[in-house]
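Q: What structure does this chain adopt?
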Amino acid sequence: MTHVLVVDDDPVIADLVAFRLGRLGLEVSVERDGEAGLAAARQLRPDLVVLDWMMPRMNGLEVCRALREDIDADLARTPVLLLTAKAQEPDLERGFAAGATDFVAKPFSTRELVSRVTAALPPGSVSG
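A:
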């Protein structure tokens, strides 16, 4: 089963994303801060990380950079979807420079989220 790790300190957003992705037949884990998210990614080896940019303890860009620099090559290649209100052109440049695969700007539609998650995962990973 395809596994997605959602890392967001806002419980409403994290739960909404987890619920919507779970309805697609994806296994979903949730963490509430960047430090816990990075630890979970290293332990769980998800197929995709949906990552908030602005979080306590470690922000999303720091987590993304740490994933890209991980000694485990598979983890370093894991797609990272930044979920953020910071969606101006300089922000996008910073996010891509940190290794983000794609962005979803807050506020977001669940349709856009599903489309971007589906695009980031290998074909056939999403069932719903």
